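Hello support,

Our group uses your service weekly, and this is the first time we've seen a run hang past the timeout. The protein is (2R,3S)-2-methylisocitrate dehydratase. I'm not sure whether the cause is the sequence or the server load. Input pasted verbatim:
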Amino acid sequence: MSKNSLGTKKNLTVAGKDYEIFDISTVDGATNLPFSLKVLLENLLRTEDGANITADHIKALAQWDPSVEPDTEIQFTPARVVMQDFTGVPCIVDLATMREAIVDLGGDPSKVNPLAPAELVIDHSVIADVFGTKDSFEQNTDIEYERNRERYRFLRWGQGAFDEFKVVPPGTGIVHQVNIEYLARVVMTRTVNGVLRAYPDTVVGTDSHTTMVNGLGVLGWGVGGIEAEAALLGQPVSMLIPRVVGFKLSGELPVGTTATDMALTITEMLRKHGVVGKFVEFYGPGVVSVPMANRTTIGNMSPEYGSTCAIFPIDEETLRYLRLTGRNDDQVALVEQYAKAQGMWHDPSVSPRFSENIELDLSTVVSSIAGPKRPQDRISLTASKSSFEKILPTYFSDKTGKEAYPVKVGAKATTIKNGDVVIASITSCTNTSNPSVMIGAALLAKKAVEKGLTSKPWVKTTLAPGSKVVTDYYDRADLTKYMEALGFNLVGYGCVTCIGNSGPLPIEISKAVNENDLAVTAVLSGNRNFEGRISPDVKMNYLASPPLVVAYALAGTMDHDFENDSLGNDKDGKPVLLKDIWPSAQEIQSVIDSSISSEMFKKDYATVFDGDHRWKSLDTPTGKTFEWDPKSTYVRKPPYFDGMPAEPKPVTDITGARVLAILGDSVTTDHISPAGNIKADSPAGKYLEANGVDRKDFNSYGSRRGNHEVMIRGTFANIRLKNLLLDGVEGSFTKNFLSNGEQTTIYDASVAYQAAGVGLIILAGKEYGSGSSRDWAAKGTALLGVRAVIAESFERIHRSNLIGMGVLPLQFTNGANAQSLGLKGDETFAITGVMALNNGGIPKEVTVTAGDKTFTAKVRIDTPGEADYYRHGGIMQYVLRQLRG
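Update from on-call engineer: The timeout came from a worker crash unrelated to the input. Re-ran successfully.
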C-alpha cells in the first residue's frame, strides 16, 4: 500500500464508475516530462513504501535533469509479465525448483507464486518441417505436439499450480502480436483493499521484442527469464533513471514504401546514434500520421537498435486500434479519460524535455532491405544488387564451387548456385501484425500469378503469421489462393523462420549447398538475421518487407536489380518488372477497409486460452510441486540452489582463472546460446543419444531449455562462433590450457577446468550479448564455470542477466581491448578489488592481472540492486532468501 506522502491519491470517474488514481500532475516538474517518465513517476507514487521507494525518489524523477548521466536508482514494478515458451519453460522450471528450495530453507512454498498477471504464449516451438502444401499447418502442428508433449504437459501443470498464470496454447499466434491485439490493457484496473484502482499498463517480457507493445503507449521491455521470475514474485526491477532520446517524426511515407522500410531506416539511425540503455520516445506532428501497425513495427525493432524501449504516446490512433481489435467501450473510455487526466495524452504541439534529440522526415524513407548478418545494416533496394555482388566473395572458401549445380526438386530439374535465395519466409511479429504489408504481399502475389509468374523451384516458401486474424482477412479478401499458388502456404502461427525454425531444406538442395560450400541466402520479413540463426545451410540472411519477400521468391536470387531485371515473362512473353506488379496504396487500403473488422478479433480471441483438441487431450500432472522425471530429456530440476546456505557467503576476488574464449565484436546471444538445430556430433547431441533420443527427435536447443544438461553443452555452440584462441576454426571449440593448449570443445574444457577448481574468463569486443533476451546465454555461461566477462561494451539485457547468474561483467577502459593489451588468452588471470562489494558499495574499477600484464577494468554492476544480486550469487538466490524471510 502506498504511503502517498505527496498526497496525490484522487478519484477519477469514467462511465459512472469510480477509480482510485495517483495524480502525477500535482508533483512539481512532472508536466513536461517525457511520456515514458510520466509512466515511471506514477509507478513510484503508487508503490511508495518509505523504504525502497521514498518521496526523495519520486522528487528526483519529477525533477529529472535530461542533461546528466544516469546516477539515481529507482525501483520499477511492472503491472504484468509476458513470456514465450522457449524462455517461459525454464522460468516455470525455476519457480518449481524454488518451491522445493524454500522448503529446504524452512520457508513456505506458497510464497513462490506470481503476484501479478503472467501470460505465456507458446509460439517458439513450431518448425516448418512441411511446406508448400494445403495441410502444411496441420502436419507441422502434429509434429510440434509429438516433439513437445512433455514440455506442454509441464506448462499445463504450471497453469494449475500457480496463481495468475495463463497459457495461450500452440497454433494461436506470436506473443507480441497476441499482446497488442488482446493481452495489453493500456490502462490496468485492480481492486486493492476493496478500492478499484486504475494505473498504466506496464510489462516486462522474456523476449527482447516485448517492446512491440510500446506502440500502444504501454511501457515495457524485454528482460531475461531470471529477472522476469523476480518480477513475477513481486520484486521490482532495479534501474537508473534513464536518458530519454526524443525522436521527432515529420512528413509522411512516400508512395511505394512500407513500415518495414521505415523501421529499418530508424534502426540504422539509432544504432549509429547510440541508444543502448536509453529510452527512445517518438513525438512531433508526424506521430499522428503513423498508423498503429507502423508504430508497433517500430517499437518491435527496439532491440535491434539497442534502446530499452521505443515508445509512442497515447492518442486517437491508440483508441481506434483498441476498438478495431475488439476491446470493449468501457475500456476504451477509461484509456482516454485516464490518459487525459494524467497528462499522458499526446499533444503534437508540445515538445517534452529530452536528453538528446534526433529527427526523421518520413518522406525521405526509401525501399530497403538489411543484411547479410545484422539488422542495422540497411541497404536501399536500388543498391541491393551492387551491394550483394561486392560482399558475396567474402563468403567464399577454398571449397566453394563457382558453377550452377544441377538438382532435382520433386520432379523438377533445376540448378543451384551462389547467391540463390533458398528460403523466402513471411514470418515474425514485426511485420505479420501489419495489415498494410501483409495485404501488400498478397496483392503482389495475385498480380504475379495473374501474369503467369511462379516462385523459383529452389526457394523454400513459407507463411507464418503471428495471429489467426491474418489468415481470416486473407480468406475474406479471397487472396489465400494466390499466396498458395506461389508456395506461401500456412506453415504455422508462430515465430518459425525468424528464430531459426525454418526447418530442413529439400534434401537435394541441402546436399548441393554443403557439398559445394555454396553461399546461398535467406530473405525473411523478420527482425533478426544473425549468422547461423536462420538455417545451418544458409550463410547470408536479409530482412525485407513481406511484399519484397514474395518478390525475392519470384527472382530466386539476391543478384537481382528490381528496377531493371525481369522477374520472368507474362503469358504474352513480355518481361515483368517489380513495378508492374507492385500494388498501390489505394489498392491495399481498399482491401483493408473491406476485409478487416473488429468481429474477426473478437471471434479469434474469444477462446484464446482454450486450445485445440491436441491441447485439451494432454495428460496433465497436478499438485503444488512438480514430480520430476529422472529420465526426462526436456524438463529436469536445475542445480542453482544445490547446497545454498541460508545466508550468502562473502564475495571473493578471482584468482588463478583461465580464458575459455576470446570473442570479437557483435557476439550475440545466438552465438552464446543458439536456439536452433542440435548437431549429432556436438556435446549436446552426444548427451541426447546417450540418453536414448533418436537424432530425428533431437528437436532444437530452444525447445530443450528446461533441461540444463542440454543447455550447458549447447553454450557457445553456434556453428559460426569464432573463438580467437584458435585460428580459422568455427564452432564450439577452444584450447584446454590444462592439457598443453590442445583443441577441444568448450564444454569438455569447462568440465576439465571445473574438476581442477579453475575459474574461467571470457574476453570479448563491442556489443557483447546483443540480440535476444536469452537468459540461457547467462545461465549457460555461469554453469560452464565462467566467473567474469571482460568486454569492450555490453548490450543491456545480457549484462543484467550475467549479474543475475553471479557472473561479473567488466568493461575495458580508455578504448582498450584484448588485442591492444596484447592478451593472447594463454595467461593466468587474477581480478582484485571485487571484495570491496562486501562493504556495501560498488567499486568503480578493479585491477586485472594477466600473466605479466596489468590493467584496470570498469565494473558494470550499475545499481545497488544489482550489487545485492551479485553478493547473493544471483537474482534467484536473492529472491529466495527474501521470500524465506
